[in-house]
């Protein structure tokens, strides 16, 4: 069955309700066993028109198409921002808190760009608000299941975040070779686990996750 393209229907409704901006928010790398978790933000405002041709949730796009769309999504958005939490931070505070930390770092980037965050609504993909607990004075956050599929701002955030994280993992191959980062991007493929068994874990791996799997 064909997947419908994302729209701006939700964003426009939120903007009509009085929000200065709608900040689409999505994360990538949550389920990986290595590398950072990354949160992307894409800001849209009243008057936003059109949607980049072919924009979709990053999971529905090929790597080549994501690379092509990332700069287009950045140019289309009023602002974009990226925040990350390292594998060490995931080990130290857990994945949910690490998501919040990455999201807070991305929001700080928007704040420094003088985005009126507290006059905005964050449209967060999923059913669980992991962002609000990480913030001292959080903006309004609205969760929406499949927002990365249905909402253009969140789809743009997902593409920008995915391309950013993929490049981190590809570059890591020259520092920690042998794990197949360019192919697996830190996710737990059979070949990846075989490399860990042969080489041992690297500094890029989430040590607690490996321990849980082998316990």
UniProtKB/TrEMBL annotation:
SUPFAM superfamilies: Ribonuclease H-like. A divalent metal cation binds at residues 26-27, 125. Its EC number is 3.1.26.4. It is found in: Cytoplasm. Keywords: Cytoplasm, Endonuclease, Hydrolase, Manganese, Metal-binding, Nuclease. Its cofactor is Mg(2+); Mn(2+). InterPro entries: RNase_HII (IPR022898), RNase_HII/HIII (IPR001352), RNase_HII/HIII_dom (IPR024567), RNaseH-like_sf (IPR012337), RNaseH_sf (IPR036397). GO terms for molecular function: RNA-DNA hybrid ribonuclease activity. It catalyses: Endonucleolytic cleavage to 5'-phosphomonoester. Manganese or magnesium. Binds 1 divalent metal ion per monomer in the absence of substrate. May bind a second metal ion after substrate binding. Gene3D superfamilies: Ribonuclease H-like superfamily/Ribonuclease H (3.30.420.10). Residues 20-215 form the RNase H type-2 domain. The keyword Thylakoid does not apply. CDD domains: RNase_HII_bacteria_HII_like. The keyword Metal-binding applies. Endonuclease that specifically degrades the RNA of RNA-DNA hybrids. Belongs to the RNase HII family. PANTHER family: RIBONUCLEASE H2 SUBUNIT A (PTHR10954), RIBONUCLEASE HII (PTHR10954:SF18). This is Ribonuclease. It comes from Antiquaquibacter soli.
């Amino acid at each position: 069955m064909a997947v419908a393209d994302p729209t701006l229907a939700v964003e426009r409704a939120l903007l009509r309700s009085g929000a200065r901006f709608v900040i689409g928010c999505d994360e990538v790398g949550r389920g990986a066993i290595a590398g950072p978790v990354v949160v992307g933000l894409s800001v849209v405002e009243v008057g936003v028109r059109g949607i980049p041709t072919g924009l979709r949730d990053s999971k529905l796009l090929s790597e080549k198409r994501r690379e092509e769309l990332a700069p287009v999504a950045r140019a289309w958005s009023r602002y974009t921002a990226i925040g990350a939490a390292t594998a060490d931070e995931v080990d130290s505070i857990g994945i949910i808190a690490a998501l919040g930390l990455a999201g807070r770092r991305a929001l700080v980037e928007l704040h420094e760009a003088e985005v009126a965050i507290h006059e905005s609504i964050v449209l967060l993909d999923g059913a669980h608000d992991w962002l609000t607990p990480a913030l001292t004075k959080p903006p309004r956050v609205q969760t929406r299941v499949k927002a990365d599929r249905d909402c253009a701002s969140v789809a743009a955030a997902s593409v920008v975040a995915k391309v950013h994280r993929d490049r981190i993992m590809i570059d890591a191959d020259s520092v920690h070779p042998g794990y197949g980062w360019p192919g697996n991007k830190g996710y737990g493929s059979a070949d990846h686990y075989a490399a860990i068994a042969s080489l041992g874990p690297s500094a890029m791996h989430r040590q607690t996750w490996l321990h849980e799997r082998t316990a």
